[in-house]
Protein: Glutamate receptor ionotropic like protein
Organism: Argiope bruennichi
Amino acid sequence: MEFPSFIKIASLSVQHILEVNTTETGEQILNGVEGRLLRTLAKSLNFQYKHMIPSDNILGLKGDNGNWSGVMGMLQRKEADFGMCGIAMLFDRLEVADFSKVFKIQRLSFLVEKPGSLPAVWAFVRIFDTVLWGIIIFVVFVAPLICSFLLNHKFSVIDLVVQFFGSISRQPLEFQMTSTRSRIFITSWLVFALVISSSYSACLLSYLSLPLQGKPITTFIDLSRAVRKGTHKSVMLKGAPSVYLLTKSGNEDLEFLGKTVLDNNWFYLPSQGIETSTVEGNTAIINADFALKLLLGKLPPGSFLISEDSLISFKFGIALRKGFCCTERLNTVLSRVLAAGLIDKYQRDEWVKVYISSIKKFPLNTSGVQQLRVNDLIGTFYIFIGGTLISLFTFLGEILHFQIKRKKFLNFAPCFDLWKP
């Protein structure tokens, strides 16, 4: 059967995916990955097309009465022949439409802002993990006790604590090793102190070169917990079934995330999927990989990331109305397009457009010099000032204590004179 000479296309208008531009003469020109794909198919199969956008501007969901909305609804009512613009092959959609050959597979991931650098005030403490700090403090207090009771040193425990702590700061120990047992113990301690001090110095130097970064959100579980804490919100594509994958996942965290999105109506329109305003204010956007990469290219370099985790993988194809005559011939041409690598080329072309505009908007900083600022060492200054104040108050307290004791001694001195012979 001869391929139809005129095809009605139902889809959305999304930048870089399927853009619809109308000339002054009323001619529709489609751009973007799927727009260029459609133009290629039209040229190969020799057909004209008319693009239509659904009134609700969504891909389509199934209602309680069995009727579909959006693009899928137009295919169900046979108002259109093709449905395009990122339509995934889902089992429910097979009730009202057929699908062509798969032309791309995409993961459902999310894009979120990186937490950025941690405050420099306590950076010198964050260099080691909390557990490691606890172990170091425990060893610093236990080692002097062992040294005092087992090695029979005459120093007080407090003096030993000060000396052992000073050895970690690369200060020498002031007592002698008189036995083989003490030599083994002190040598093992010096090795421990050398490893700890050297590791801390190396980590501190690396921090001064590159400040510590906060822990990023990389999985859907982390995202759900961040939403639960109220630090982030998550938005999903309006009119897509992705949110119901979360609510029916069987995982408590994922179900909470899906229900929160539904309850708060955290949805974005398809045309907003690659707009930078969508991810403002600690907002994570859930979308297909390619759309997220395009959005990432429009954002400041190094400020956002795409999750390592994915919710599901979707197969994308052209949705066809039931009873379409020439599915086999369409698949033949589509197979040739895929074999030629045209889909990958179309995606690279769109990415290059985004990359070029990003370079103009965010020029690369070629300066390799990173100055050390006061803020980078502000925590160390705080410790120095705090230690100095404590020493000053201790010194004043000792003077006051000495004066009080001296005054009491002078008051009792006449009493001692009475006992002289």
Notes: The two ends are 140 Å apart (CA to CA). The mean pLDDT is 83. The longest helix spans residues 378-418. Residues 398 and 404 are 10 Å apart (CA to CA).
